[in-house]
Amino acid sequence: MTTRRNFIKTTAALGLIPLLPVSMLSQGAEQVTVDDPAAKALRYAEDAAQAVRSDKMGVAAADQLCSNCQFYTVSSSDAALGPCMLFQNRLVVGAGWCAGWVPKQ
Ligand code: SF4
Fold first, then answer.
1. Beta 81-84 vs 90-93: how paired, if at all?
2. 71 lines ligand 1 (CB under 6 A)
3. Which atom number of ligand 1 is nearest to the Cα of residue 87?
4. What is the pTM for the complete model shown?
5. What is the set of domains in the chain, with CATH numbers?
6. 82 alpha carbon – ligand 1 mean position (Å)
7. 98 Cβ inside 6 Å of ligand 1
């Protein structure tokens, strides 16, 4: 029996699938969490606005996001999640940031 709660959970989960690159779906990549040791070391934040940033390489702190970082490998700049090379291609939030940020070439 499908309850309203299960229906909402299922449709919410299905709604996220198109945001993930096909390669990530097949590999089952996990998402980096802020309490991950590597994430802590790099001061990763899922919301860049919550991170303490400074201007870097000629880019204003407020303009630095995972989605415009060299290590973010999703081609669409508005992807909600994408693989980060610095985190062994685990998924990070496009609107996030970490101290490893480098402008996309
Ligand atoms: S290296 Fe770039 S894409 Fe990866 S978490 Fe840091 S800012 Fe985001």
1. antiparallel
2. yes
3. 4
4. 0.74
5. 21-93 (4.10.490.10)
6. 10
7. yes
